[in-house]
């Protein structure tokens, strides 16, 4: 990711205000606030610049220049990444965009800015499969054990970012789940999408996804014609993992109503076979 502007060079950037706001937010955060170990002999108030840069997925040099009122005009993508890395609230995110000379993104169901409260909880789930998803089932964040459980589902682009879309178009997605539950999953995804299409209306992203699936999946067309609504899982999900075998996990959810984001946390009963398999899975989890 580079820091070049995106055709908005005429926009007015408040370099002093931007630099001051970034410094204040960085110095007000502690490592444990963003899921980092505190360590010893920290001479810097709050986070170090290189720590913030890593959280924002940008270079430390570029971030340092912003705090020193230097560098190119940051793009909207860059500002969005910084806002997320600094765990900003929606009001703080919008303020950051305006300081950088950009209009803030819309506050609706299409927003992918994760609220700081949800992120704080997520950052503490270091030894548990968990993920944050949008209302369309697009994965925004996964814990390492979450990646080990279902694969890296943040890597998809376009419509395939939605698990509902992949469910009806990509057989590999189904391979991770117990075959006896496939029919129920199909009904759940179709019913959930129907609810969103009604809620968000014609022309919305859910409506566009519906049109794609109607054109591409005969199974989706069949399930869609049933007009089911309110179909849900029991709270238990069964997986067919390629390395540890069958897993039966409880799925707990936490909704952020401001963003329509959901935190999904997967656990197994202590002493159960699935609990032991999760321990095995942790050994192969990336960065575990």
UniProtKB/TrEMBL annotation:
Q: Which domain of life is it from?
A: Bacteria
InterPro entries noted in UniProt = Cro/C1-type_HTH, Lambda_DNA-bd_dom_sf, MLTR_LBD
Q: Report what the protein is called.
A: Helix-turn-helix domain-containing protein
Output the Gene Ontology terms for molecular function: DNA binding
Domain HTH cro/C1-type positions = 40-93
Q: Which Pfam families does this entry report, sorted A to Z?
A: HTH_31, MLTR_LBD
């Amino acid at each position: 990711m580079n820091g070049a502007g995106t055709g908005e060079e005429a926009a007015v950037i408040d370099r002093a205000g931007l630099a001051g706001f970034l410094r204040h937010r960085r110095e007000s955060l502690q490592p444990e606030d963003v899921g980092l170990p505190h360590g010893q002999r920290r001479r810097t108030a709050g986070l170090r610049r290189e720590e913030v840069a890593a959280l924002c997925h940008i270079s430390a040099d570029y971030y340092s220049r912003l705090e020193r009122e230097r560098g190119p005009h940051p793009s909207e993508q860059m500002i969005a990444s910084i806002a997320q890395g600094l765990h900003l609230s929606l009001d703080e995110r919008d303020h950051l965009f305006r300081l950088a000379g950009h209009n803030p993104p819309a506050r609706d169901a299409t927003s992918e800015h994760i609220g700081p409260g949800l992120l704080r909880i997520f950052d503490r789930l270091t030894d548990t499969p968990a993920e944050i998803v949008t209302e369309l089932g697009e994965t925004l964040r996964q814990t390492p054990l979450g990646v080990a459980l279902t694969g890296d589902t943040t890597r998809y682009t376009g419509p395939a970012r939605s698990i509902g879309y992949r469910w009806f178009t990509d057989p590999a997605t189904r391979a991770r789940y117990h075959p006896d539950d496939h029919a129920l999953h199909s009904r759940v995804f179709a019913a959930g999408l129907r609810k969103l299409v009604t809620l968000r209306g014609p022309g919305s992203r859910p409506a566009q996804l519906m049109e794609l699936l109607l054109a591409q999946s005969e199974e989706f067309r069949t399930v869609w014609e049933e007009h089911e609504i309110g179909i849900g899982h029991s709270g238990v999900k069964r997986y067919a993992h390629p390395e540890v075998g069958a897993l039966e996990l409880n799925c707990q959810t936490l909704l952020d109503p401001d963003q329509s984001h959901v935190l999904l946390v997967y656990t197994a009963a202590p002493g159960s076979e699935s609990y032991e398999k999760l321990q095995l899975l942790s050994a192969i989890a990336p960065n575990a």
